[in-house]
């Protein structure tokens, strides 16, 4: 595709739940807006002043899980206004609208200010991150903000996100599955695959794997990559909620042996994602053409 050149000054912004690593965040000049984590009555900024490890510790010690809160319209207005007043166009990519009302709040702020192009990623974690990277590349090619946002909206269906859960304890504690289901799965050593619906970002249980985590992860990676014959091999994310390095290495090796990607980035999920999934959750996230 020939490069288009525009004189537009563009800011790339995203909800912090896009879970990029420091390299990609810096490479594409991404500005984050953190979601809120409410724990024991205190309001924390996700991955700014609270980590997933602190969330897990609190659960193990006191059986309390945090509440996650959306970014309100005023916060988005305050976030965007200085750039808009400075003559920038802003592209902001949100966590999937099925998971959070941040997207609706962001749209209200954008409408009030103008010059803000809001994209519902219809995804979570680095499923959103795939679109953020795509936006960064298009800005580098000189495309205008409105065209970039339109292109991103048409690409959401091509972003594939899924995760393997090592335990259902946290899903149950957060009210997302019944005690019977959680107990049964944990006793039977079942490790469900959570599939993200890229039409809105909602989550559903896919295949249930049985066995030790190392065997399950290898099978899961092969299954997910085998589903698609038209994988975009530019970038794959391995995103986890805190897991021993040996599992990450195993997953990377399995990916390498199955499909050759130009770049593989290992990233850690934010508290918003991790507090629902619990530790030892890992997923691969990639695009199709």
Brief overview, please?
This protein has 289 residues and is of the alpha/beta class. Helix content is 40%, strand content 26%.
How would you portray this structure in words?
With 289 residues, the protein is an alpha/beta fold. It is built from 11 helices and 13 strands. The strands form 3 sheets. Strands 10-9-8-13-11-12 form a 6-stranded mixed beta sheet, sandwiched between helices. It has a 4-stranded parallel beta sheet with strand order 2-1-6-7, with helices on both faces. Helix 3 runs parallel beside helix 4.
Order of strands in the sheet with most strands: 10-9-8-13-11-12
Distance between the termini: 15 Å
| Computed Rg | 19 Å
- What's the helical proportion of residues? 40-55%
Ranges where pLDDT stays below 50 over 5 or more residues in a row are: none
Strand content bin: 25-35%
**Order of secondary-structure elements:** EHEEEHEHEHEHHEHHEEHEHEHE
Largest sheet: 6 strands, mixed
H/I helix tally: 11
SSE arrangement:
Elements: E1 10-15, H1 22-27, E2 30-33, E3 36-39, E4 42-45, H2 52-62, E5 67-69, H3 73-85, E6 89-94, H4 102-113, E7 116-120, H5 126-140, H6 145-155, E8 159-164, H7 169-173, H8 179-187, E9 190-196, E10 203-210, H9 213-226, E11 231-240, H10 245-258, E12 263-268, H11 271-277, E13 282-288
Parallel strand pairs: 1-2, 1-6, 6-7, 11-12
Antiparallel strand pairs: 3-4, 3-5, 8-9, 8-13, 9-10, 11-13
Core attributes:
13 strands, six-stranded mixed beta sheet, 289 residues, alpha/beta, globular, 26% strand
């Amino acid at each position: 595709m020939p490069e288009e050149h525009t004189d537009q000054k563009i800011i790339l912004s995203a909800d912090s739940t896009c879970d990029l690593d420091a390299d990609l965040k810096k490479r594409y000049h991404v500005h984050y807006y953190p979601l809120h984590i409410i724990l024991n009555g205190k309001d924390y900024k996700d991955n700014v002043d609270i980590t997933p490890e602190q969330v897990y510790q609190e659960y193990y010690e006191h059986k309390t899980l945090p509440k996650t809160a959306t970014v309100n319209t005023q916060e988005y207005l305050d976030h965007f206004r200085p750039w808009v007043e400075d003559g920038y166009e802003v592209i902001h990519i949100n966590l999937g609208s099925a998971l959070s009302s941040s997207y609706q709040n962001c749209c209200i702020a954008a409408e009030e200010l103008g010059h803000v192009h809001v994209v519902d990623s219809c995804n979570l974690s680095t499923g959103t991150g795939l679109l953020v990277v795509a936006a960064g590349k298009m800005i580098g090619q000189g495309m205008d903000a409105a065209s970039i946002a339109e292109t991103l909206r048409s690409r959401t269906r091509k972003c594939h996100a899924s995760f393997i859960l090592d335990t259902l304890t946290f899903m149950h504690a957060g009210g997302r599955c019944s005690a019977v289901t959680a107990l049964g799965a944990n006793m039977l050593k079942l490790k469900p695959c959570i599939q993200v619906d890229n039409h809105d970002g909602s989550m559903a249980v896919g295949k249930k794997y049985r066995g030790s985590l190392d065997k399950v992860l290898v099978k899961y990676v092969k299954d997910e990559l085998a589903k698609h014959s038209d994988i975009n091999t530019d970038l794959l994310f391995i995103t986890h909620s805190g897991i021993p390095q040996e599992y990450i290495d195993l997953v990377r090796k399995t990916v390498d042996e199955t499909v050759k990607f130009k770049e593989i980035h290992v990233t850690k999920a934010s508290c918003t994602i991790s507090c629902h999934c619990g530790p030892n959750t890992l997923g691969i996230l990639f695009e199709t053409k």
